[in-house]
Amino acid sequence: MRISSLQIFNIATQSMADANESIIRTQQQLSTGQRVLQPSDDPVASTKILALSDELASIKQYQANINIAKNDLELEETALNGVLNVIQRVQELAIQAGNTATLSPSEYNAIADEVDARIDELQQVLNTQNANGDYIFGGFKSQKEPFSGSAQTGFRYQGDDGQKFIKVANNTTVASSDSGKAAFVDVAAASPTVQTYASASNRSNPPLTISVGNVVDPEAYGDFFPEDMVITFNEDSNIAPPGKNFTITERSTGRVVLADQRYSSGEEITANGVSFYMTGNPASAEPGRAGDRVFIDATQKQDVLTTLARFSEALRAYDGSPENRAALELNLSDSIGNLKNAQTSVLEVTSQIGARFNTLESTEELHYDSDIVIQELLSELRDVDYAEASARLASESLILQAAQTAFARVSRLSLFDQI
Fold first, then answer.
1. pTM
2. pLDDT tens-place string over residues 348-383
3. Fewest CB within 10 A of the end CB: N or C in the chain?
Protein backbone atom coordinates (compact mmCIF):
# COMPACT_ATOMS: atom_id res chain seq x y z
CA MET A 1 0.00 0.00 0.00
CA ARG A 2 1.46 3.28 -1.04
CA ILE A 3 0.97 6.36 1.15
CA SER A 4 1.64 9.65 -0.50
CA SER A 5 3.23 12.62 1.17
CA LEU A 6 -0.13 14.43 1.00
CA GLN A 7 -1.82 11.66 2.97
CA ILE A 8 0.92 11.80 5.58
CA PHE A 9 0.41 15.52 5.98
CA ASN A 10 -3.40 15.18 6.18
CA ILE A 11 -3.26 12.40 8.77
CA ALA A 12 -0.79 14.30 10.92
CA THR A 13 -2.79 17.53 10.68
CA GLN A 14 -6.05 15.76 11.65
CA SER A 15 -4.38 14.01 14.58
CA MET A 16 -2.99 17.26 15.95
CA ALA A 17 -6.34 19.01 15.44
CA ASP A 18 -8.20 16.24 17.34
CA ALA A 19 -5.65 16.35 20.15
CA ASN A 20 -5.90 20.14 20.32
CA GLU A 21 -9.71 19.97 20.38
CA SER A 22 -9.61 17.50 23.27
CA ILE A 23 -7.31 19.84 25.20
CA ILE A 24 -9.57 22.83 24.58
CA ARG A 25 -12.67 20.90 25.73
CA THR A 26 -10.91 19.74 28.89
CA GLN A 27 -9.72 23.28 29.62
CA GLN A 28 -13.30 24.54 29.23
CA GLN A 29 -14.51 21.87 31.63
CA LEU A 30 -11.92 22.93 34.18
CA SER A 31 -12.67 26.65 33.78
CA THR A 32 -16.49 26.26 33.96
CA GLY A 33 -16.54 23.41 36.45
CA GLN A 34 -19.01 21.54 34.26
CA ARG A 35 -18.45 18.17 32.65
CA VAL A 36 -21.30 18.45 30.13
CA LEU A 37 -20.78 21.57 28.05
CA GLN A 38 -23.20 20.69 25.25
CA PRO A 39 -25.82 17.95 24.72
CA SER A 40 -23.52 15.96 22.43
CA ASP A 41 -21.03 15.48 25.28
CA ASP A 42 -23.51 13.17 27.07
CA PRO A 43 -27.05 13.03 25.60
CA VAL A 44 -28.51 10.97 28.45
CA ALA A 45 -27.04 13.19 31.15
CA SER A 46 -28.09 16.32 29.21
CA THR A 47 -31.72 15.20 29.23
CA LYS A 48 -31.62 14.57 32.97
CA ILE A 49 -29.86 17.89 33.59
CA LEU A 50 -32.54 19.78 31.65
CA ALA A 51 -35.35 18.10 33.61
CA LEU A 52 -33.66 18.77 36.96
CA SER A 53 -32.96 22.40 36.01
CA ASP A 54 -36.64 22.89 35.18
CA GLU A 55 -37.56 21.41 38.54
CA LEU A 56 -35.19 23.82 40.29
CA ALA A 57 -36.73 26.78 38.44
CA SER A 58 -40.20 25.64 39.54
CA ILE A 59 -39.05 25.33 43.15
CA LYS A 60 -37.58 28.84 42.99
CA GLN A 61 -40.90 30.23 41.74
CA TYR A 62 -42.84 28.31 44.38
CA GLN A 63 -40.57 29.73 47.08
CA ALA A 64 -41.24 33.24 45.76
CA ASN A 65 -45.00 32.48 45.84
CA ILE A 66 -44.70 31.28 49.42
CA ASN A 67 -43.04 34.55 50.42
CA ILE A 68 -45.85 36.51 48.75
CA ALA A 69 -48.50 34.42 50.51
CA LYS A 70 -46.76 34.83 53.87
CA ASN A 71 -46.59 38.62 53.47
CA ASP A 72 -50.28 38.79 52.54
CA LEU A 73 -51.35 36.57 55.42
CA GLU A 74 -49.17 38.45 57.92
CA LEU A 75 -50.81 41.73 56.90
CA GLU A 76 -54.26 40.16 57.18
CA GLU A 77 -53.45 38.68 60.58
CA THR A 78 -52.33 42.10 61.81
CA ALA A 79 -55.60 43.63 60.59
CA LEU A 80 -57.66 40.89 62.24
CA ASN A 81 -55.85 41.46 65.53
CA GLY A 82 -56.79 45.13 65.21
CA VAL A 83 -60.44 44.15 64.70
CA LEU A 84 -60.34 41.90 67.75
CA ASN A 85 -58.86 44.72 69.85
CA VAL A 86 -61.71 47.03 68.82
CA ILE A 87 -64.36 44.39 69.55
CA GLN A 88 -62.85 43.66 72.95
CA ARG A 89 -62.85 47.34 73.89
CA VAL A 90 -66.47 47.83 72.79
CA GLN A 91 -67.45 44.74 74.78
CA GLU A 92 -65.96 46.43 77.85
CA LEU A 93 -67.94 49.59 77.07
CA ALA A 94 -71.14 47.56 76.65
CA ILE A 95 -70.67 45.98 80.06
CA GLN A 96 -69.95 49.41 81.52
CA ALA A 97 -73.09 50.82 79.87
CA GLY A 98 -75.18 48.11 81.48
CA ASN A 99 -75.05 50.02 84.77
CA THR A 100 -78.18 52.07 84.00
CA ALA A 101 -78.85 52.70 87.68
CA THR A 102 -75.89 55.04 88.14
CA LEU A 103 -74.88 56.39 84.72
CA SER A 104 -76.37 59.66 83.52
CA PRO A 105 -77.32 60.58 79.93
CA SER A 106 -74.18 62.73 79.65
CA GLU A 107 -72.05 59.76 80.68
CA TYR A 108 -73.77 57.62 78.05
CA ASN A 109 -72.95 60.30 75.49
CA ALA A 110 -69.31 60.10 76.54
CA ILE A 111 -69.36 56.33 76.02
CA ALA A 112 -71.02 56.88 72.64
CA ASP A 113 -68.19 59.27 71.68
CA GLU A 114 -65.65 56.52 72.26
CA VAL A 115 -67.78 54.00 70.36
CA ASP A 116 -67.91 56.40 67.41
CA ALA A 117 -64.11 56.72 67.53
CA ARG A 118 -63.86 52.92 67.54
CA ILE A 119 -66.19 52.77 64.52
CA ASP A 120 -63.85 55.05 62.56
CA GLU A 121 -60.86 52.98 63.67
CA LEU A 122 -62.57 49.72 62.73
CA GLN A 123 -63.63 51.00 59.31
CA GLN A 124 -60.03 52.01 58.57
CA VAL A 125 -58.79 48.55 59.56
CA LEU A 126 -61.43 46.84 57.38
CA ASN A 127 -60.27 49.01 54.48
CA THR A 128 -56.61 48.05 54.93
CA GLN A 129 -54.50 48.12 51.75
CA ASN A 130 -51.39 46.13 50.92
CA ALA A 131 -48.17 47.45 49.36
CA ASN A 132 -49.76 47.26 45.90
CA GLY A 133 -52.69 49.43 46.96
CA ASP A 134 -55.17 46.52 46.92
CA TYR A 135 -57.86 46.35 49.62
CA ILE A 136 -57.17 43.04 51.36
CA PHE A 137 -60.80 42.40 52.38
CA GLY A 138 -62.40 43.38 49.06
CA GLY A 139 -62.32 39.91 47.49
CA PHE A 140 -61.77 40.14 43.73
CA LYS A 141 -62.90 43.80 43.79
CA SER A 142 -59.68 44.81 45.48
CA GLN A 143 -59.34 48.17 43.70
CA LYS A 144 -62.43 49.65 45.39
CA GLU A 145 -62.87 50.49 49.06
CA PRO A 146 -64.92 47.55 50.39
CA PHE A 147 -66.61 49.18 53.41
CA SER A 148 -68.35 52.49 52.77
CA GLY A 149 -70.90 54.55 54.65
CA SER A 150 -71.14 55.92 58.17
CA ALA A 151 -72.86 55.31 61.48
CA GLN A 152 -75.53 57.83 60.48
CA THR A 153 -76.30 56.47 56.99
CA GLY A 154 -75.45 52.81 57.45
CA PHE A 155 -72.64 50.72 56.01
CA ARG A 156 -72.42 48.89 52.70
CA TYR A 157 -70.01 46.16 51.63
CA GLN A 158 -68.91 46.80 48.04
CA GLY A 159 -66.55 43.83 47.66
CA ASP A 160 -67.42 40.24 46.79
CA ASP A 161 -66.92 36.70 48.08
CA GLY A 162 -63.70 36.11 46.12
CA GLN A 163 -60.55 34.63 47.61
CA LYS A 164 -57.11 34.82 46.02
CA PHE A 165 -55.19 31.55 45.83
CA ILE A 166 -51.46 31.12 45.23
CA LYS A 167 -49.88 27.93 43.92
CA VAL A 168 -47.03 26.90 46.22
CA ALA A 169 -46.36 23.36 44.93
CA ASN A 170 -47.33 21.12 42.03
CA ASN A 171 -50.55 20.02 43.72
CA THR A 172 -50.91 22.65 46.47
CA THR A 173 -52.62 26.04 46.46
CA VAL A 174 -53.14 28.26 49.50
CA ALA A 175 -55.63 31.10 50.00
CA SER A 176 -53.70 34.33 50.52
CA SER A 177 -56.76 36.47 51.31
CA ASP A 178 -60.23 36.35 52.86
CA SER A 179 -63.42 38.06 51.83
CA GLY A 180 -64.61 40.80 54.17
CA LYS A 181 -68.15 39.60 53.54
CA ALA A 182 -67.50 36.22 55.13
CA ALA A 183 -65.46 37.61 58.02
CA PHE A 184 -67.31 40.80 59.00
CA VAL A 185 -70.66 41.01 57.17
CA ASP A 186 -72.23 37.54 57.26
CA VAL A 187 -72.15 37.42 61.06
CA ALA A 188 -75.06 35.72 62.79
CA ALA A 189 -77.24 38.25 64.62
CA ALA A 190 -78.23 37.65 68.21
CA SER A 191 -81.88 38.14 67.18
CA PRO A 192 -83.76 38.91 63.93
CA THR A 193 -82.83 42.38 62.75
CA VAL A 194 -82.93 44.67 59.70
CA GLN A 195 -80.70 46.11 57.02
CA THR A 196 -81.51 49.59 55.75
CA TYR A 197 -80.42 51.29 52.50
CA ALA A 198 -81.56 53.81 49.91
CA SER A 199 -82.36 52.95 46.30
CA ALA A 200 -79.54 53.56 43.83
CA SER A 201 -82.06 55.15 41.41
CA ASN A 202 -83.09 57.95 43.80
CA ARG A 203 -83.04 61.49 42.38
CA SER A 204 -82.80 63.48 45.61
CA ASN A 205 -80.21 66.19 46.16
CA PRO A 206 -78.86 66.17 48.82
CA PRO A 207 -79.22 62.40 48.80
CA LEU A 208 -81.92 60.76 50.87
CA THR A 209 -80.39 58.61 53.63
CA ILE A 210 -81.81 56.25 56.22
CA SER A 211 -80.31 55.42 59.61
CA VAL A 212 -79.14 51.91 60.49
CA GLY A 213 -82.39 51.39 62.43
CA ASN A 214 -83.11 49.45 65.60
CA VAL A 215 -85.60 46.76 66.56
CA VAL A 216 -87.29 48.42 69.55
CA ASP A 217 -90.23 46.00 69.85
CA PRO A 218 -89.02 42.41 69.33
CA GLU A 219 -92.52 40.99 69.67
CA ALA A 220 -94.04 43.25 66.99
CA TYR A 221 -91.10 42.70 64.69
CA GLY A 222 -91.20 38.95 65.34
CA ASP A 223 -94.80 38.88 64.05
CA PHE A 224 -93.71 40.71 60.86
CA PHE A 225 -90.39 38.88 60.28
CA PRO A 226 -89.12 37.79 57.73
CA GLU A 227 -90.95 40.31 55.56
CA ASP A 228 -89.26 43.42 54.13
CA MET A 229 -90.54 46.98 54.06
CA VAL A 230 -90.39 49.54 51.22
CA ILE A 231 -90.71 53.28 51.90
CA THR A 232 -91.89 55.21 48.84
CA PHE A 233 -92.32 58.99 48.59
CA ASN A 234 -95.67 60.02 47.16
CA GLU A 235 -96.89 63.09 45.31
CA ASP A 236 -96.92 66.15 47.55
CA SER A 237 -100.65 66.55 46.96
CA ASN A 238 -101.42 63.35 48.88
CA ILE A 239 -101.52 65.33 52.13
CA ALA A 240 -102.93 68.69 53.17
CA PRO A 241 -101.27 71.06 53.21
CA PRO A 242 -99.18 69.62 50.36
CA GLY A 243 -95.70 68.47 51.31
CA LYS A 244 -93.23 65.61 51.32
CA ASN A 245 -94.91 62.39 52.43
CA PHE A 246 -94.30 58.67 52.21
CA THR A 247 -96.02 55.31 52.41
CA ILE A 248 -94.56 52.13 53.93
CA THR A 249 -95.59 48.84 52.32
CA GLU A 250 -94.77 45.18 52.73
CA ARG A 251 -92.50 44.29 49.82
CA SER A 252 -93.80 40.80 49.01
CA THR A 253 -97.52 41.66 49.06
CA GLY A 254 -97.72 45.43 48.69
CA ARG A 255 -99.84 45.63 51.86
CA VAL A 256 -99.79 49.13 53.31
CA VAL A 257 -98.17 49.41 56.73
CA LEU A 258 -98.30 53.22 57.07
CA ALA A 259 -99.88 55.49 54.46
CA ASP A 260 -99.28 59.15 53.56
CA GLN A 261 -97.02 60.00 56.49
CA ARG A 262 -95.66 63.56 56.50
CA TYR A 263 -91.88 63.59 56.13
CA SER A 264 -89.66 65.49 58.54
CA SER A 265 -85.91 65.10 58.16
CA GLY A 266 -84.36 63.39 61.19
CA GLU A 267 -87.69 62.57 62.84
CA GLU A 268 -87.93 59.11 64.42
CA ILE A 269 -90.31 56.68 62.69
CA THR A 270 -91.51 53.33 64.05
CA ALA A 271 -93.07 50.59 61.94
CA ASN A 272 -93.56 46.91 62.80
CA GLY A 273 -91.31 47.30 65.85
CA VAL A 274 -88.44 48.92 63.88
CA SER A 275 -87.30 52.43 64.73
CA PHE A 276 -85.39 54.57 62.19
CA TYR A 277 -85.12 58.06 60.73
CA MET A 278 -84.45 59.55 57.30
CA THR A 279 -82.53 62.66 56.30
CA GLY A 280 -82.10 64.58 53.06
CA ASN A 281 -84.41 66.12 50.48
CA PRO A 282 -86.31 63.23 48.87
CA ALA A 283 -87.71 63.54 45.36
CA SER A 284 -91.49 63.27 45.41
CA ALA A 285 -93.48 61.22 42.94
CA GLU A 286 -94.70 62.94 39.80
CA PRO A 287 -97.22 61.84 37.17
CA GLY A 288 -95.55 58.97 35.36
CA ARG A 289 -92.48 59.09 37.60
CA ALA A 290 -91.97 57.28 40.92
CA GLY A 291 -90.61 59.01 43.99
CA ASP A 292 -87.49 58.14 45.93
CA ARG A 293 -87.43 54.89 47.88
CA VAL A 294 -85.60 53.34 50.80
CA PHE A 295 -85.67 49.73 51.95
CA ILE A 296 -85.76 47.93 55.27
CA ASP A 297 -84.85 44.29 54.71
CA ALA A 298 -85.28 41.54 57.26
CA THR A 299 -82.12 39.60 58.04
CA GLN A 300 -80.61 37.23 60.57
CA LYS A 301 -77.12 38.63 60.01
CA GLN A 302 -75.51 41.85 61.18
CA ASP A 303 -72.13 43.21 60.16
CA VAL A 304 -69.76 44.32 62.90
CA LEU A 305 -69.82 48.00 61.88
CA THR A 306 -73.62 48.13 62.09
CA THR A 307 -73.47 46.50 65.54
CA LEU A 308 -71.27 49.34 66.78
CA ALA A 309 -73.40 51.98 65.04
CA ARG A 310 -76.62 50.71 66.65
CA PHE A 311 -74.93 50.54 70.02
CA SER A 312 -73.81 54.17 69.71
CA GLU A 313 -77.27 55.27 68.56
CA ALA A 314 -78.94 53.61 71.55
CA LEU A 315 -76.46 55.22 73.95
CA ARG A 316 -77.15 58.71 72.57
CA ALA A 317 -80.92 58.17 72.66
CA TYR A 318 -80.91 57.38 76.40
CA ASP A 319 -82.73 60.05 78.42
CA GLY A 320 -83.20 58.24 81.75
CA SER A 321 -86.90 57.39 81.31
CA PRO A 322 -88.10 53.85 82.18
CA GLU A 323 -89.19 53.23 78.57
CA ASN A 324 -85.85 54.40 77.26
CA ARG A 325 -83.99 52.36 79.84
CA ALA A 326 -85.80 49.22 78.64
CA ALA A 327 -84.89 50.00 75.02
CA LEU A 328 -81.23 50.52 75.99
CA GLU A 329 -81.12 47.26 77.93
CA LEU A 330 -82.57 45.44 74.89
CA ASN A 331 -79.91 47.00 72.65
CA LEU A 332 -77.15 46.14 75.13
CA SER A 333 -78.25 42.51 75.18
CA ASP A 334 -78.24 42.33 71.39
CA SER A 335 -74.96 44.25 71.12
CA ILE A 336 -73.14 41.95 73.51
CA GLY A 337 -74.44 38.89 71.64
CA ASN A 338 -73.58 40.37 68.24
CA LEU A 339 -70.09 41.37 69.38
CA LYS A 340 -69.49 37.84 70.63
CA ASN A 341 -70.62 36.42 67.28
CA ALA A 342 -68.38 38.89 65.41
CA GLN A 343 -65.47 37.92 67.64
CA THR A 344 -66.08 34.24 66.91
CA SER A 345 -66.19 34.94 63.16
CA VAL A 346 -62.88 36.82 63.26
CA LEU A 347 -61.25 34.13 65.40
CA GLU A 348 -62.34 31.47 62.90
CA VAL A 349 -60.65 33.37 60.07
CA THR A 350 -57.56 33.84 62.27
CA SER A 351 -57.37 30.10 62.94
CA GLN A 352 -57.66 29.42 59.20
CA ILE A 353 -54.73 31.76 58.61
CA GLY A 354 -52.73 29.80 61.18
CA ALA A 355 -53.47 26.57 59.33
CA ARG A 356 -52.35 28.16 56.06
CA PHE A 357 -49.11 29.30 57.66
CA ASN A 358 -48.47 25.71 58.74
CA THR A 359 -49.07 24.54 55.16
CA LEU A 360 -46.72 27.18 53.80
CA GLU A 361 -43.95 26.33 56.26
CA SER A 362 -44.15 22.58 55.69
CA THR A 363 -44.23 23.12 51.92
CA GLU A 364 -41.27 25.49 52.15
CA GLU A 365 -39.27 22.92 54.11
CA LEU A 366 -40.11 20.29 51.49
CA HIS A 367 -38.87 22.64 48.76
CA TYR A 368 -35.61 23.22 50.64
CA ASP A 369 -35.06 19.47 50.98
CA SER A 370 -35.91 18.89 47.31
CA ASP A 371 -33.55 21.69 46.30
CA ILE A 372 -30.66 20.04 48.16
CA VAL A 373 -31.33 16.62 46.62
CA ILE A 374 -31.68 18.03 43.10
CA GLN A 375 -28.49 20.07 43.48
CA GLU A 376 -26.62 16.92 44.49
CA LEU A 377 -27.99 15.01 41.49
CA LEU A 378 -27.08 17.88 39.19
CA SER A 379 -23.58 17.94 40.63
CA GLU A 380 -23.13 14.26 39.92
CA LEU A 381 -24.36 14.63 36.34
CA ARG A 382 -22.92 17.99 35.39
CA ASP A 383 -19.93 18.93 37.55
CA VAL A 384 -16.42 18.02 36.49
CA ASP A 385 -14.07 15.80 38.47
CA TYR A 386 -11.09 18.15 38.75
CA ALA A 387 -8.55 15.41 39.54
CA GLU A 388 -9.64 13.28 36.60
CA ALA A 389 -9.83 16.29 34.24
CA SER A 390 -6.38 17.51 35.30
CA ALA A 391 -4.84 14.09 34.65
CA ARG A 392 -6.67 13.91 31.33
CA LEU A 393 -5.38 17.35 30.34
CA ALA A 394 -1.81 16.27 31.03
CA SER A 395 -2.33 13.11 28.98
CA GLU A 396 -3.90 15.03 26.10
CA SER A 397 -1.07 17.57 26.16
CA LEU A 398 1.47 14.74 25.97
CA ILE A 399 -0.41 13.22 23.04
CA LEU A 400 -0.41 16.57 21.22
CA GLN A 401 3.31 17.01 21.83
CA ALA A 402 4.03 13.47 20.55
CA ALA A 403 1.94 14.10 17.44
CA GLN A 404 3.74 17.35 16.76
CA THR A 405 7.18 15.71 17.25
CA ALA A 406 6.27 12.77 15.01
CA PHE A 407 4.99 15.08 12.31
CA ALA A 408 8.15 17.16 12.44
CA ARG A 409 10.29 14.05 11.88
CA VAL A 410 8.08 12.56 9.19
CA SER A 411 7.93 15.84 7.32
CA ARG A 412 11.75 15.69 6.90
CA LEU A 413 11.74 12.23 5.24
CA SER A 414 12.74 13.51 1.78
CA LEU A 415 15.72 12.79 -0.55
CA PHE A 416 16.13 16.50 -0.92
CA ASP A 417 17.05 16.72 2.77
CA GLN A 418 19.96 14.32 2.04
CA ILE A 419 21.46 16.32 -0.86
1. 0.78
2. 999 999 999 999 999 999 999 988 888 787 766 665
3. N
